[in-house]
Amino acid sequence: MEYVSTRGAAPALDFRGATLAGLASDGGLYLPREWPRFSADEIAAMAGLPYAELAARIMQPFIGDAIAPERLRELTAAAYGRFAHAAVTPLVQLDERQWLLELFHGPTLAFKDVALQFLGLLFEEFLRGVDDHLTIVGATSGDTGSAAIDAVAGRAGIDIFMLHPRGRISDVQRRQMTTVLADNVHNVAIEGSFDDAQAFVKRMFNDPAMAGRFHLSAVNSINWARLMAQVVYYFASALQLGAPSRRVAFSVPTGNFGDVFAGYVAARMGLPVERLFVATNVNDILHRALSSGDYSASTVTPTAAPSMDIQVSSNFERLLFDLGGRNGAALAEQMAGFEATGAMRLTNAQREGAAALFASARADADDMAGAMRWAFEATGQVIDPHTAIGLHAARKAEGLGASVPIVTLATAHPAKFGDAVERATGLRPSLPARVGDLFERAERCSDLPGDYAAVADFVAAHATRQA
């Protein structure tokens, strides 16, 4: 399997190269040259497989001969052996139609663990026996950072630098990063928003002064391997609900578009996905893009769902590329216009292609709180603010057949956002015992201004230069 850049000017890479590179050298994102497809019979044969075995089966076509099948099964068994639930991503029924897919049973209590526990092992696998040192640079709006740090802390040949917007993530999210004191972990709080942090990361990959001295890589969902691992739980949940003979819809709370793009990939692979509902908070650039073709950034509004406080959705570029005939030069021009002005219009082909599978909804603070209350009072389920935004969209869903179940992705444990949950439900959720001492641990973090030069200088001073 070869991987090509959405902007058309970077060289094609194999799976190993794309995984270690993260961002393409032309500023684009890597995608497989073609989508592998499973037949209905092949999908049906996956029913009942343990999650780790299903993961290996789904991911093997993307990996090709970069990892032997038996070794891939060993890696998936190791990655998902750390989850607190035997099903890894269990389904919970809310009513006759609504379901939750619980993605927070990993070590850092968020859906990012599903991909990053595997990605950490991939990095280690690809670096074994090679005279190379990887410098991972990432930005987080809350959950990516802790999941990535947990996945690579203490691993040989890797340093990780994780940027987060100071004061704009929850205390639990921050402490899950800053209390990891491994020598190869560097937490950085910057003045500004997640979009600022993400822009610094992208700029660093295209800065010769940095990319030429360090082997930079990414753990954000700009890294294709991370999205690939997220495709698996769409198959897992759909199979439990009757796929391939039954179609399934998904509602996905999203800011950076990576999680819902994984659902799009699952559909391209042959999974019978009826509809993907893109659920946003008031930072609604994706809702505006999908409903009216207006992809224009505005000021980020802080909310009680901080992982979605994003106005530049990196992975949306992958969808625009695929729907626009995979014309890298045309997309590069389109994205250059957006990066220069902060605004662009989707083409007719992009809008029509998206409308065939996607719908969108926007939730404000009252909508979010109302969904949390409904889940608690009607079903006994306590959910976090991000999941509530997805559930709000799912309960508003229209145009689906009565037999189509709707699965809302429950992306984080409610205890990560205890204040917001308590305000909505009157109940303060407790942290699981395995992280119960989180607020007693020492923290370590560096504060930097919202300035690219300051961030680049910090990374250069603490990273290991490539051989």
Count of DSSP E strands? Answer: 15
Cα-atom Rg, whole angstroms? 20 Å
Low-pLDDT residue spans:
none
Mean pLDDT: 95
Find the structural class using helix and strand composition: alpha/beta
Taken as a percent bin, the fraction of beta residues is 5-15%
Identify the overall geometry.
globular
Classify the helix fraction into a percent range.
40-55%
* Major sheet details: 6 strands, mixed
What's the tally of helices? Answer: 19
Strand order of the largest sheet: 3-4-14-9-10-13
How far the N terminus sits from the C terminus, by CA atoms, comes to: 28 Å
Question: What does this protein structure show overall?
Answer:
Helices cover 43% and strands 15% of the residues. The chain contains 19 helices and 15 strands. The chain has helices at 15-21, 40-44, 51-63, 69-80, 112-127, 143-152, 171-178, 194-205, 208-211, 224-240, 258-268, 285-292, 316-323, 328-341, 348-355, 365-379, 385-396, 418-425, 452-462, and strands at residues 3-5, 30-32, 91-93, 98-102, 134-139, 158-165, 185-190, 215-217, 248-253, 273-280, 294-296, 343-345, 358-362, 406-410, 446-448. A hairpin with a 4-residue loop joins strand 3 and strand 4 (98-102).
Describe the secondary-structure layout.
Elements: E1 3-5, H1 15-21, E2 30-32, H2 40-44, H3 51-63, H4 69-80, E3 91-93, E4 98-102, H5 112-127, E5 134-139, H6 143-152, E6 158-165, H7 171-178, E7 185-190, H8 194-205, H9 208-211, E8 215-217, H10 224-240, E9 248-253, H11 258-268, E10 273-280, H12 285-292, E11 294-296, H13 316-323, H14 328-341, E12 343-345, H15 348-355, E13 358-362, H16 365-379, H17 385-396, E14 406-410, H18 418-425, E15 446-448, H19 452-462
Parallel strand pairs: 4-14, 5-6, 5-8, 6-7, 7-15, 9-10, 9-14, 10-13
Antiparallel strand pairs: 1-2, 3-4, 11-12
